[in-house]
Amino acid sequence: MPSCGYICLKERDPAQAPRNSRQTGQKRKFYMLYIEGMTLEMKKLKQEYTFLDELPEGRKFRYKCRDYTTTITVDSGGLVLEYPDVFCRRY
Fold first, then answer.
1. pTM above 0.90, yes or no
2. What string of pLDDT tens digits covers the 91 residues of the chain?
3. Which of 50, 52, 39, 44 is CA-nearest to residue 7?
4. SS3 breakdown of the chain: % helix, strand, coil, rounded to 5?
5. Residue 35 parent element (H or E)
6. Which of 13, 62, 74, 79 could anchor a disulfide with 50, C-beta 3.0 to 4.6 Å?
7. Beta strand pairing status for 87-88 and 80-83?
């Protein structure tokens, strides 16, 4: 699998809710710059995150980009703990 990276192209809008005050179903959209590691090809992609739940193991979000959708779990700092079929962070 080629390496890749994302860079956020939009600063957080101060009118949007802070990270720690989400409501179930709340959606946020971001434009990200995807950089394909082998060719350095760059693409602007829209990503959407929908807050699902606050659980002891982390916050659950529905992640959507183009025609791909999955549920991810993030820690209190917003770092991904679990990305199904891609990785799971171990301590």
1. no
2. 444 555 555 555 444 555 556 789 999 998 988 888 889 999 999 999 999 999 988 899 999 999 999 999 998 888 889 888 888 887 6
3. 44
4. 0, 55, 45
5. strand 27-36
6. 62
7. antiparallel
